[in-house]
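ESCALATION

Customer reports they have been waiting on this structure for their group meeting. Please prioritize. Original submission:
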Amino acid sequence: AIECYERALKLDPDYALAWAGLSRACVDQAGQNWAPRDEGYARARDAADRAVALGPNLSETHTAMGWVRRSCDWDWKGADAAFRKALELAPGSTLAMNGAAVLVGNLGRFDEAIGLYRRAVELDPLNVSLHRNLGLYCLAGGAFDEAETALHKTLQLSPKGGLTYCWLAM
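Update from on-call: job pushed to the front of the queue and completed.
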């Protein structure tokens, strides 16, 4: 993905959505330790800054900034503000809902995370990650029946999801 975003940016260095995508890919890469964390997060932050500067009215750019503030900076208020702005710009953005839900879920606000995931799953019913995350946060929030339902749906959509089996066993 990073290579594809870089190619797009060579063609159009002012392409805000490519900067946002590059930022998200770098956050993921550094967060999974597939690249040195400091370098990956610095690159993600630079790309998110560029994305927001070029596309201040795009939900995706603020979503990218939210992931940087949450994952790289541990700036909960900044991340919350970025995700709120993203959802204000595109209330139906499941990408922004996912980011916001991960943030509030990690802060222990499980009811809020579950609500965001319910809405996201309703909007994008074939998205495996959304169902899986709904199951995870339902599990964490003690909504075990709903967690089981969401995780079974995840396995219907993606039967080889090993981690999903783990969560279902819990």
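Sent to customer with the following note: The chain is about 80% helix and 0% strand.
Escalation resolved.
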